[in-house]
Amino acid sequence: MQKRPLGRSGLEIAPLVFGGNVFGWTIDERTSFSLLDAFVDAGLNAIDTADVYSRWKPGNQGGESETIIGNWLRANPGKRERVLILTKVGSDMGQGHKDLSPGWIEKAVEDSLRRLNTDVIDLYQSHWPDPSTPQEGTLRAYEKLLRAGKVRAIGTSNYDAALLEESLKVSAEKGLPRYEALQPGYNLYDRSGFDGPLRDLVMREGIGVITYYSLASGFLSGKYRSKEDLAKSQRGQGVAKYLDERGMRILGALDEVSARLDAKPAEVALAWVIAREGVTAPIASATSPDQLASLVRAVHLALSPEDIAALDTASA
């Protein structure tokens, strides 16, 4: 499978990233292992997680997703060379606040490396902005990790254009490593946070982009079309905000393009993100073999200019 450069990091990823938030939350270790095996066997190579996944589940402490990935790597010694591990730091892991302080990063990276059963994290990402820590302090902490060989590249998530531009300025002025990748929320419905100044900035600076919420919490799968449908899954209530005129217009366009291509709406929605200039790859999760097979089909789905125009118009 053809891979795409992730900014100027030197890393290359296939055009779809497996979202590890489901590991230890909605699927157990055995199911996670089988899906990871199928993902790699399909030629895909990037797995995204975070230290905080899935702290929100009752009984969990955080680190469950990283631990499952680490156990999978331990059980499959040859797989580490075939995958890139992307994880994040900075969420509240019990400190009571978002934390990108040098001391916390120094501790958190060791915990992640141990859980992931690896000597190096391919992409280490600031999960959330930390207003209490100067960007220079965070970047100097990352510089130490890069020099020590514990991290290959750094990225950030949930930064707006002003914050990302500020970080790039600090990197340039202080001779510090820069963020080579960005994770914004982005999909056919949620476009305003990335399209515009942020997209212009990453394209100008050659920064890789890995989108999350690429299916709008499942809304773009087409299975939620009324308030009655929200009870179909535990994620349903997060979809209610999409049940408006624009959301229905987007689903209508997805239905039309899907019928034309003999594909599922979710596959078309992911293919649209994959084709979007400025995006390296979307993140998507799967909890069953059928869902994973659908993700793989999305990677190989070729949208025509007419298909893209129809989706752009509906989602404008």
Automatic annotation (TrEMBL):
Keyword list (alphabetical) reads: Oxidoreductase
Q: Which GO terms describe its cellular component?
A: cytosol
- List each copy of the NADP-dependent oxidoreductase domain by range: 15-314
Q: Which InterPro entries match?
A: AKR_Detox_Biosynth (IPR050523), NAD(P)_OxRdtase_dom_sf (IPR036812), NADP_OxRdtase_dom (IPR023210)
Q: Which CDD domains match?
A: AKR_AKR9C1
Molecular function (GO) terms for this protein are: oxidoreductase activity
Q: What Pfam families does the database record attribute to this sequence?
A: Aldo_ket_red
Q: Does the keyword Transport apply?
A: no
Name by which UniProt lists this protein: Aryl-alcohol dehydrogenase-like predicted oxidoreductase
